[in-house]
Amino acid sequence: MARCFCRWRTMLICVCTPCILLVLLVAYATVMVCAATNNRVVSFHFVASGTLNNKSFGPLPQTFWDLDQHGDAIWNRLQLTIDRHFNPVLRPNDMRTGLENDNIYESRGMQGFSEVKLDSMGENLDRLPEQIQDFAKHMHRRDYPTLIQPDGVCGAGEEEEREAPLLLLAIKSTELGFKNRQAIRQTWGQAGWVAGQGRSAKGGGGGYIRRVFLLGKGRVENVVGDLPESLQMESKHYGDILQWDFRDTFFNLTLKDVLFWSWFSRSCNRTVFVFKGDDDVFVNTPKMITYLRDQLRKPQANKIIGDFMIGDVIVAALPSQDRKSKYFIPGSFYKGRYPVYAGGGGVVYSGLLARRLHHVSKRVHLFPIDDVYVGMCMTRLNVHLVHHAAFLTFDFPSGTEEKQPCSYHTVLLVHKRSPSQLLKLWANMTMTQAQCWDAPLRKGYT
Known about the structure:
alpha/beta, Spore Coat Polysaccharide Biosynthesis Protein SpsA, Chain A, 9-stranded mixed beta sheet, 3-stranded mixed beta sheet, transferase, Hexosyltransferase, glycoprotein, hexosyltransferase activity
């Protein structure tokens, strides 16, 4: 009887002990999960590439927006808040409703901005230069009314286009920049059908071009005579002015990108490419047309074009600490390296990418340097810019190259040139076109 009892006790222990341990393990795991949920530390990690089909989400690289180390700078703190609002890990319900909805974007953006009041940063804000203080106080605003609209649906162009516009020239200008605008209209910015130039253009390559100038409002003290009235007359004559009701300053150039993307998304459904640049550059439009046509002929062009942006790419730049420079950005406003971006003389991107930039810009707080801001949006999209040596943001590297007979036939853009220089260059380009027809673009691009 004693032996039988020992056997049953041993069997009971062998069976029950694992069950008891399993129950304790489950209880421990439950307690730990609850504790982690109640004391969650907000993660700075974002959705990994390929996790979602939505291309507007991409990982933030460690070399940019290292928010954990730079949380005291005003812009970094503001951006950290908005990033938390759009983090798909922290807000899974938003992924189900879809963040492409404009109302969700705008409400999240304003909510994020309101959580970091500039008043609470008073000490840091007061130490900033006056122009950055002014920018910071208005950097949450994007709802500026339109004062002048182009006549055409998507800028000035030919009335009866037989195919979709290949290229829209979106040129940043000012109210006082009439001479620059007029020189562009008479030279590289002519709207309508433009023939290409080069070997691949001999078969009839060309495309329709449209044109629009992007303006804000100048300072009242800078207004000469009846400038608003003359601008209205200019718009009525050429139909290529797009003006918004915000003060046109260097730090507000970013607003022109953001408002242009919004306007483009509404008005330019058929346009394939966009050139966005300044009104003091020279653009080799025929070569640009041929180059863009070549991109459309590439295998799987439809997939490539969605991410297409090309220009003079700048890598690993740091904010200028020279207080005399117009690019000066103090560490109390922004800390860290700049993202990869294209030099501001001019850049070309696809219409598809322009619409994606419009959506993602609502998740990136405005930044005083417009070129850098575009790079920030590109980083947030996880899209890589393409560098091309034919974009000369800082002019020809040597005077010897510029003096070559076909030098300007080998470039897509040169910065910067005055209105009188544009007229002379265009006349010379026309005279030497036959001689330099097959001149290849400058090499060194990737």
